[in-house]
Please model this.
Amino acid sequence: MEAKIALAGNPNSGKTTVFNALTGGRGHVGNWPGVTVEKKDGAVKGHPGIIIEDLPGIYSLSPYTPEEIVSRGYLINEKPDVIINIVDASNLERNLYLTTQLAEIGIPMVIALNMTDVVEKTGDVIDYGKLSEELGAPVFGICAVNGRDLRLALLADKAIEMKGKNPPKAEGCFSEKTEAALRKIMDLAAKAGIAESPRFYAVKLFERDKEIKLSLPPEVSEEIEKIIQACEKELDDDSESIITVERYDRIAEIMKKCVKLNDAGGLSASDKIDRVVTHRVLALPIFALVMFFVYFVSISAVGAWLTDWVNDSLFGEIIPGAVSGFLASVNTAEWLNSLILDGIVAGVGAVLGFLPQMFVLFFCLAALEDCGYMARIAFIMDRIFRKFGLSGKSFIPMLVGTGCGVPGIMASRTIESPADRRMTITTTTFMPCSAKLPIIALISGAFFGDSALVPSSAYFLGVASIIISGVALKQTRLFAGEASPFIMELPAYHMPRIGGALRVAGERAVSFAKRAGTFITLATVIVWFLSGYGFDLKPAEVDSSILAFIGRGAAPLFRPAGFGSWQAVVASITGLMAKENVVGTMGVLYPGDSLASAMTPRAAYAFLVFNLLCAPCVAAMSAIAKEMNSKKWTAFAIGYQCAFAYAAAVIVYRLGAIFGGGI
Amino acid sequence: MTLNDAPLGKALTVLKLSGDGPLKRRIMDMGITKGAEITVRKAAPLGDPIEVTVRGYELSLRRADAANIEVSEKPE
Model:
């Protein structure tokens, strides 16, 4: 048997957990609203012909968020055979708001009340039979966190059985006056040829939904508008409000009939946690502690230990040793040896070295998301970050970015507003990452007597660049427009699910590793070739390579910033492979102590500024491309970073001339 | 009074929502509709946004948006 089943429900309703349980497959378990923005499908365990589509978590079928539009489009255009509506039983009233809207589409539906264990703990009693009667659809209680819950299999069987059966009852949701208006609209639409989902379309027409594009004759549209206006006048409200208010009134009525609330009172465990975690005074120190812990574990401790091992042992000795041994045994040409060892193994190794850090970090973030703290971070930090056009959650990418920009950029995925996310991705690498520290040390040592002011100024520069960019870009057309609404559910806390967090971390790490195999390999091979070969296509030292030629051509461009030497330009370009390469290249091109006399300190500082802010390494650029998921936005981000770095370097150099005298 | 200057911990009733478009719809979709019962729980440590309880769950919104929601204290 074959069938298409759509899984629909609110964010945080445990929809993805149900999806994973039913398909036995992979999925992302999270607590942050809007985590499953991508479409995801899979076959039901034991029923290869039954495909489940995991729709993004939504609160409503209104036309305002991308998730809502995607879900609506799927339900209306793809016409799944059955909808499984996942409902958070511990949050029934608001979840049923979506249920009553799904019922209007006219597709057979099964309602799964999830998190029944939470309800049992609070002592509330839900009458399933009565609820099923009121909603006109079968109702199941499940507990998806417990993957062995036998009721999950029953749910799947019931959903398959519902194919071709009656859709839920949707009539009678609204007041008699509204229902009368809807009936009239339905008649008019039917005459104009709207045959499918008549009630859904009638409600949407009544709401004057702009995304509904039915080709109705103008006289029919006029007639409908008259009906709406008459109803609005009679009920003294706008049509959208009438529908929303009456829908919630109907739900309140259902709640009264079907749910016995336990009024024993007292604070739930979640309330108690929240009292401490978002406490006026304690919130910020706790936040700092959590952030320190995440940073420490993923960047400094476990992650760094694993990354060092991958870099120094795996890609430093084991693999190069094995590969060169193999190459020697098959007696390959020298240039091929160099390409494979110095180009591909070195380049890809540098990138894959980030994987352990990323895995640990993603695990921590997924656990934070899952337990409900991520939403509180946005709650605590919103005030500060929205001034710069960023989200409260931008803090995490930036903090992580001080360790490594790649996981930093990828951590931006938890930000749900596209504008905030793009802004965060564009500015995260302004923070000096650990690979930039050697550059800072080099300049500080050669020109400033190892002054501690140089490293601290680098962090200051990073923060200032983010703030300036945020404020400035917000003024442009690209990022302007209405501030993204911050109306966010604060989900109840619960224990994070280790399995789910591991799965998320694994998926993200794998998807990054796949990229390393393509884009990054290509980029590293190009840089390897340019820096190792001359125009005669024969191996050459760096100073007679193609790259040196490019450097000589581009050097005058950097004269306004004081470091217009080809060596500095070449070093910056090799830095695109990995930032610490800047140091190595400078070492080759300025042997011995010649660096200190090659440029003035302020030119050297301008050079540092440029390298700290310009386009990051290929791994980070690849992460930008992945998270932006758009060529245009990727090009914008990298172009902006380079332009900003150039401007900052010129300004620093010129200001240095004014304030610093002749240094 | 508006939700922005409502006292903490008091049961309130929503009287009216001003504004229009996506923002108003979003507020209504999340359960803040005319006649709904709502309680302001607390403000974030830096004073904004605020956290409210409505229809049995916790919701956070900015003060600027809360100022569009007119409420009255529920009689005891």
The interface with chain B takes residues 59-60, 62, 64, 91-94, 97, 237-238, 240-241, 244-245, 248-249, 274, 278-281, 283-284, 375, 379-380, 382-384, 482, 485-492 of chain A (CB under 8 Å). Strands of chain A lie at 3-9, 40-44, 47-54, 82-88, 109-114, 125-126, 139-141, 259-260, 487-489.
